[in-house]
Amino acid sequence: LPTFNPNDLSNIKDVKIFSNPLTESAYEMGSIIKPLTMASGIDSGIIDNKFSYEDKGFLTLDGKKISNFDGKARGIVNAQEILSQSLNIGAATIAIKIGQDIFSKYFLSFGFGEKTGIDQPNEQKGLVNNLSTKRDIEIATASYGQGISMTPIQTIRALAILANGGNLVKPHLVKSIEYENGKAKDIDIE
Fold it and tell me: Is the dihedral of CA 70, 76, 79, 81 positive or negative?
């Protein structure tokens, strides 16, 4: 919504109805980013299946307090529970253990801060400047999807890495375009 007739665009008063928020709008994605933080910790060797930490419900970094969504402490928590309970402090703890430089490299390697190259107009890059501030608070909040923004298609592409053998792919909607004049253009699928 709103609807329109694609065969008659002459009555369109607001061109915003043609925008695609999946590629043109960037958001702070929140907790859906935590599996990428966990994957970064595992891949870097910082955590393994025996990892645990003491969750006090909050951390104070660079003079700022962050907390779990409910502010409650969980005590000794293992890696699976970070995801199962969506614990901000768990994700932040992993990011801090990974370290600013390595954590930032991982998140940039997921394609955050760059266009995916999807065959759609007006794609945006998102905002990831907080990954380069050298402040622990910025890395901690990025670990649970706050303080950085990305488009939904960037997020989907990044999460697909987890099921895609670690490969970052270029998303496509079509394999080819057939024009009314009979010509066709194949889309280069990597």
Answer: negative
